[in-house]
Amino acid sequence: MPRLADTPFSVLELAPIRDDGGPAEALHNALVLARYADMLGFTRFWVAEHHNMPGIASSATAVLVGHLAAGTTRIRVGSGGIMLPNHAPLVIAEQFGTLATLYPGRIDLGLGRAPGCDPLTARALRRDRLGSADDFPQDVEELQRLLGPAQPDQPVIAMPGVDTNVPIWLLGSSLFSARLAAQKGLPFAFASHFAPRYLHEALRVYRENFRPSPALDKPYVMLGVPMVAAPTDEEAEFLATTLYRRVLALIRGQSTVLRPPVESMAGQWLPHEKEAVGEFLGLAVVGSPEKVRARLGVILEQTEADELIFTCDLYEQADRLRAFEILAGFR
């Protein structure tokens, strides 16, 4: 059974944009948080690809990964993830092969099979060929070949990229990627930070079907966890209303810019919306250090996760930094 003190902690960042701010502030805050996580001893700092979303500044994911890697010294930096249907595998191999060449031993490549955007935006991203989630297994295989050793008479080579063997992770919120990660012997990150419904079934499928590979000899699971930690339960619940308001806006199809916390969510949502936000954040940990520690212990006991990766959507940057400092105190 994994112990909290021995479990690697990581950060998943969306470079959130405040209602009174802009992308420059969001990207600056991402770098400040990455440096802080590096200092605190966190294992990874991943950024997620989203497009056409006014509240998220991490759309040019590979560019941001390079910026964060340049500004840190030890922590692994990567994608959580690159939405592969939006890109030709060769382009991703060249981008992450370049990153791995510049920052050897520090780059991760997490891959998702959803476009992470609406159909119109997906078409704008790949005008010549609209990618499909159905192509995901073949695209992953092609990407593995491009990042692996060159083969005799190989017609297309990623340069840089070839023989960098950038670690590939598969991300998912259902059973498809769990099965594929198991078949390929790859580490699996479950998107329980926004879709915890199939968590336990996906972990069972992944572990029961895992086949050892050159990349991994046994299953390795990382779970996404929304987190709001503060000195008291009352302050944490207050700060968490920014997160609740953001998820509510997403459900309503509104702008997901960060909005200030409010004293109460009463009157902010309808009963069915409150329930939907609760389902979205089913794995969230919100509270004082004691409450967060206890909740994380239960999550580890129930899932036997190998690693936890935390999201933290708070309005004030200082509150985010403090929340991760609280987490680091559990180590």
Task: Provide structural commentary.
- The chain has an 8-stranded parallel β-barrel with strand order 1-2-3-4-5-6-7-9, surrounded by 8 helices.
- Helix 6 runs parallel beside helix 7 and helix 8 (233-252) crosses helix 9.
- With 331 residues, it is of the alpha/beta class.
- It has one domain: Luciferase-like domain (TIM Barrel, Alpha-Beta Barrel), CATH 3.20.20.30.
- The protein has helices at 23-40, 61-70, 89-102, 119-125, 136-147, 176-184, 199-209, 233-252, 271-280, 289-303, 317-328; strands spanning 9-13, 44-47, 76-83, 107-112, 168-172, 188-190, 221-229, 285-287, 307-311.
- The radius of gyration is 19 Å and the shape is globular.
- The longest helix has 20 residues, at 233-252.
Overall mean pLDDT score? 94
Separate helix tally = 11
Return the domain count.
1
Gross CATH architecture: Alpha-Beta Barrel
What share of residues are in beta strands?
5-15%
* H/E element sequence: EHEHEHEHHEHEHEHHEHEH
Strand order of the largest sheet: 1-2-3-4-5-6-7-9
Describe the structure using short key phrases.
LLM class flavin-dependent oxidoreductase; oxidoreductase activity; TIM Barrel; EC 1.-.-.-; oxidoreductase; 9 strands; eight-stranded parallel beta barrel; CmoO-like; 331 residues; alpha/beta
Helix and strand arrangement:
Layout: E1 9-13, H1 23-40, E2 44-47, H2 61-70, E3 76-83, H3 89-102, E4 107-112, H4 119-125, H5 136-147, E5 168-172, H6 176-184, E6 188-190, H7 199-209, E7 221-229, H8 233-252, H9 271-280, E8 285-287, H10 289-303, E9 307-311, H11 317-328
Parallel strand pairs: 1-2, 1-9, 2-3, 3-4, 4-5, 5-6, 6-7, 7-8, 7-9
